[in-house]
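User: Fold this; tokens only.

Assistant: Input:
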Amino acid sequence: MVFLPTNIFQMIITLNEKEERKADKSLYSYQKGAIDKIFDSFENSREDYHLLYQLPTGGGKTVIFSEIVRQYLSNHNKKVLVMTHRIELCKQTSKVLSEFGVVNKIIDSKANLDDQSKYSCFVAMVETLNNRLNDGKLDISGIGLVIIDEAHYNSFTKLFKFFSNSFILGVTATPLSSNIELPMTDNYDELIVGESIQDLIKNEFLASANMYSFNVGLTSLIIGANGDYTVKSSEDLYTNNDMLSKLLMSYEEKCKGLKTLIFNNGINTSLIVYDMFKTAGYDVAHLDNTASKKERARILHWFKVTPGAILTSVSILTTGFDEPTVESIILNRATKSLTLYYQMIGRGSRILKNKPHFNVIDLGNNFHRFGEWGIDLDWQRIFKSPNYYLDSIITDEEIEGNFRYEMPDELRQEFLNSKEVYFDINKTYVESIRKGESSKVVLERSIIQHAEICIENSEDIFDALILSKKLNDDIDFRINRYSKCISKSTHNFLDWLTDDYKKRLRSYLRENFDKIKETVTVS
């Protein structure tokens, strides 16, 4: 008898499961286990019990509840209703149900309900269903099971009153309500937590993420009534030249040549991003919710078959979009929504042959806010005490207070003659105040340090001036730190301070190049 190491034995089981899944609609072991738990709850609870099931994006929630529908209809003389929040999800859900042998009818605005008695399973979008129920055109008297996809959306709760005698199963990747005023624990009796992201990665059901974060100043962003950053303030930030340059630089440094999906907060931002990549010679397309069905299908097909394609989008692809060939995700936005954060990154997690991992670039400090994708979150605690979790999320001010500017590797190569390029604004400010000096000396000393590293790595004044123009990110970082030290950070003041800093740096270089160069040469 040959004994295999546990990890190899598990790998063989996983591969066998995948082959079985391809051959017929059988399920993986963790999916079967989830179904058993759900049916156990169904059989041992009251008929109007509300159960919530959590499973990460890419774990197969639709497959699981489709099998639940199949088994339920085989063993109960009642009907099933599946609710979604988007028409695309309705169609995808209907298709998967059909693959499991469940004959179903989509209830949309054009659906003919004269034959509804012939069906035991219905799939409906929430708003359309609400209209049909209010006008009394849909008979729901025989429905015993209601399944809600993407259950964290609150639009579903207004329909619960119609199903007071039905078992309700909500499924979601993140059991945290999209509206803090309507916590999920108020509408669901119990949460069943499924397989974790780490376990799905370990068993090769999901790709792992290589995560790269580029620090961004977000204090100009405004939080809207929905609790997330407003589109207007986001577009003001993400369409400025510095942020666009940072986006292009980060893409070329970490994602160049990889099929990349970019998420933005605002159509105008996405269009400007499209123009920038197009001008730079990259194969890129833009997609938002104003595109026709035909145009959307054309763009998504192009994205699927084009190696190294870039697709810049606005929210529309966060759910109901499954493209395993995505190799890189760029979060060109900040969000306060844990759900949206996981949805965006999840678009790249679909595993594919020769794709064990994918890249994620964060340009919104989201990693700092929520932690890296796939960390061990206590979903039970988040479900039961959402306010406790939300109150623990670090603020943008706290995040930026912990930043330390790190010069990009490519730029650092141009400053190889300098042992240290970092300048600590906070420390310099504290020292100057203790000595009774004016706060203005902080920027004066910063300018001197910037001038020195430019001169150390230049042959003449012209080289030094060129190098100084490449320090924009570092200058912005120092100005923002300084403004926080003196508690003065209006946009006009920051703009003036930044322009003045650059002028004084250029002037200092011209006046002191020879003197500093001589000192550097002697040392």
